[in-house]
Design brief:
With 106 residues, the chain is mainly α. The chain is 75% helix and 0% strand.
């Protein structure tokens, strides 16, 4: 049972990290990041708690988490990059109720 729980947790962490990478790639469509910024953003978001559920809306959960750590993200990016990120933050903040309804957050 313990091994199964560990396996499930590892799988969820892997899926969450993949969702974070996808979200970062989507951000880079409008504002490219340097490799060091990309890695720092990945590390920052990987330290956020994974969603209660994984599924088709995990990308919205990642945007929600980005909005929650926007002060730390601002330290990583320049002004032009932050302008593009503000849209992501706004979307993420607006997703809280939706994520609650779909079981991603409490």
């Amino acid at each position: 049972v313990v091994t199964l729980e560990r396996t499930e947790r590892a799988r969820a962490e892997f899926a969450y990290r993949a969702a974070i990478k996808l979200a970062i790639a989507n951000v880079e469509k409008s504002s490219p990041l340097r490799a060091s910024q990309r890695q720092a953003l990945l590390d920052l978001l990987a330290d956020t708690p994974p969603p209660k559920a994984m599924g088709q809306y995990t990308n919205y959960y990642v945007m929600y988490q980005m909005a929650k750590v926007q002060d730390q993200i601002q330290e990583l990016l320049d002004a032009g990059q932050m302008q593009a990120m503000r849209q992501v933050f706004a979307q993420g903040q607006g997703m809280a109720q939706f994520l609650k309804q779909h079981g991603y957050i409490d």
